[in-house]
Design the sequence.
């Protein structure tokens, strides 16, 4: 027996399409997606009787286009967990083809849907209006550019455009601009190499869209491509077909043929900001939507202009972030060859993911089983501090390989810094550990004092001869020799670890000593684990880089390699 859900109107005659004016339908499905009831409104909207539909899978009846079964599965999973689900689906059912809003919620008690079943309300989405209006631009101003993440910004553009303005949208940016900031790419030649940042298809889940229109994919637009012509001329280009190369690429992917055939009119709009053509935005509409008219093109151009500024901001930020990442990671010391009888661990945390700091550290193997440990801090952040840090670190590494005394090395670094433009300042500490003699020779230039964490004894702050920061040209540095018995740990660090706006330097040094004592009290405890624990314990949300280097002479004289690079 067929169960129907009462509708507001009488049912349409069996087999005939519903009368005009009906735009929604109500039905139920069980937990497996099989139709268990089909209302009068469903009969009128879809023109099929309950007897014809009940017992069939909803994916076979209405949602057999690419990606739609996945959406139905998501909806039923949410309903099974007791939560409602609402989304846009792409119907494939005679005259009701096109986008619709589908709302699912747990079926009421006593419903034929049974446990885990869903009450489903489907409402046909209205066609895109001939003139979307200024609300689209207001939404764009609010939603686009909420972050400086390049991919997210591009995705926000597509979310604003679909489905309010188009049934599909894709954002492309010139690959040379992204990869190398190549200004020669201002005007493409016979082809344009672009990267797809984001795409959105109305009625398709993101997983299906991304499987066909892959984010990050690099493409080449030839001279026949509307997107190429838009980038070349700087003007919107309207078309009634996709380029053949695009069609070929789409149809090689599952579901791509149906998606490519689902749109009949296209608009490519250049993305231009600050006198530079960054790429293009492409929009598409389905057969039941109006074509792109003059007002639509003007609206798309204004939308693209606003989006381009946000995308360019994100592009420039991404370039700076990648530069900072490359500098910081490229300048960290490679895994060194630690002499036998020593163990070394180190950690480095930049002040921010996109800010180049002035901290550096290095470990240099010396003759006779010794090792030089260097920690420095060029004052400031950004490119200027990075430039000083690069030069000083390179010079310190080179001087260390000459096996010069610590005070001599600091003297030469001081003269070098004083001769740089703008006379930058930096602090530095230089230590040479000799496992054979159980000793350490240290000199500092304006740097925080090192600490010794001793087994079964309180940590000791070393009182070294004073030395002014590098860059003053004073040339007055003095080294001190310290006994470093096996099991005693030497801690070198930068002020970012121990000082902040809410923690004075003296309190920070005391906290460092307490943390070292807590984690290194067991003789022979893992140094790398201790280094990680100490940095995490003292790390605060400050405005400076953090560097910590720990070294000790191993009991028994058997050395280990560095267990974990920063």
Sequence:
């Amino acid at each position: 027996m067929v169960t129907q859900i009462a509708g507001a109107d009488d049912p349409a005659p069996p087999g005939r399409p519903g009368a005009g004016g009906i735009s929604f339908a109500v039905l139920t499905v069980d937990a497996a997606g099989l139709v268990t009831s089909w209302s009068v409104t469903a009969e009128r909207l879809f023109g099929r009787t309950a007897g014809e539909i009940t017992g069939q899978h909803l994916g076979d009846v209405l949602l057999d286009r690419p990606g739609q079964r996945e959406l139905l599965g998501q909806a039923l999973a949410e309903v099974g967990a007791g939560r409602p689900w609402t989304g846009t689906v792409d119907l494939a059912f005679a005259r009701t083809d096109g986008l619709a809003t589908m709302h699912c919620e747990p079926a009421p008690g006593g419903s034929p849907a049974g446990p885990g079943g869903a009450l489903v309300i489907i409402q046909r989405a209205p066609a895109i209006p001939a003139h979307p209006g200024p609300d689209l631009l207001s939404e764009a101003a609010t939603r686009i550019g909420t972050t400086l993440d390049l991919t997210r910004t591009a995705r926000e553009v597509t979310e604003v455009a679909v489905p309010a303005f188009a049934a599909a949208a894709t954002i492309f940016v010139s690959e040379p601009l992204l990869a190398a900031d190549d200004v020669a790419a201002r005007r493409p030649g016979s082809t344009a190499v672009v990267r797809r940042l984001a795409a959105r298809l109305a009625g398709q889940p993101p997983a299906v869209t991304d499987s066909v229109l892959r984010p990050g994919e690099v493409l080449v637009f030839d001279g026949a491509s509307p997107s190429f012509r838009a980038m070349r001329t700087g003007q919107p280009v309207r078309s009634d077909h996709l380029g053949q190369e695009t069609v070929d690429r789409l149809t090689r992917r599952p579901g791509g043929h149906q998606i490519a055939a689902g749109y009949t009119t296209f608009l490519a709009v250049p993305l231009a900001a600050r006198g530079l053509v960054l790429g293009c935005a492409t929009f598409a509409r389905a057969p039941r939507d109006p074509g792109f008219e003059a007002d639509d093109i003007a609206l798309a151009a204004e939308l693209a202009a606003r989006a381009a500024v946000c995308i360019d901001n994100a592009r420039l930020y991404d370039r700076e972030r990648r530069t900072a990442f490359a500098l910081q990671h490229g300048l960290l010391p490679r895994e060194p060859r630690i002499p036998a009888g020593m163990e070394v661990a180190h950690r480095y945390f930049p002040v921010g993911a996109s800010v180049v700091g002035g901290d550096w550290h290095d470990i240099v193997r010396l003759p006779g089983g010794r090792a030089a440990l260097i920690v420095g801090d060029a004052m400031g952040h950004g490119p200027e501090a990075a430039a000083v840090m690069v030069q000083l670190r390179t010079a310190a590494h080179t001087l260390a390989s000459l096996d010069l005394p610590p005070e001599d090395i600091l003297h030469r670094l001081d003269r070098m810094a004083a001769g740089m433009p703008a006379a930058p300042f930096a602090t530095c500490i230089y230590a040479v550990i000799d496992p054979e003699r159980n000793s350490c020779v240290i000199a500092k230039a304006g740097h925080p004092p090192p600490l010794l964490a001793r087994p079964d004894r309180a940590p000791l702050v070393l009182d070294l001869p004073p030395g002014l920061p590098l860059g003053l040209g004073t040339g007055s540095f003095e080294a001190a020799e310290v006994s470093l018995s096996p099991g005693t740990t030497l801690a070198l660090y930068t002020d970012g670890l121990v000082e902040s706006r809410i923690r004075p330097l003296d309190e920070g040094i005391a906290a460092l000593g307490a943390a070292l004592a807590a984690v290194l009290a067991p003789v022979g405890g893992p140094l790398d684990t201790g280094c990680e624990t100490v940095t995490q314990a003292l790390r605060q949300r400050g405005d400076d880089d953090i560097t910590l280097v720990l070294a000790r002479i191993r009991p028994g004289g058997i050395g280990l390699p560095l267990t974990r690079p920063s």
Remarks:
- The first helix runs from residue 40 to 46.
- The chain has three domains: 24-124, 135-323, 332-557.
- The chain has a mean pLDDT of 83.
- The radius of gyration is 34 Å.
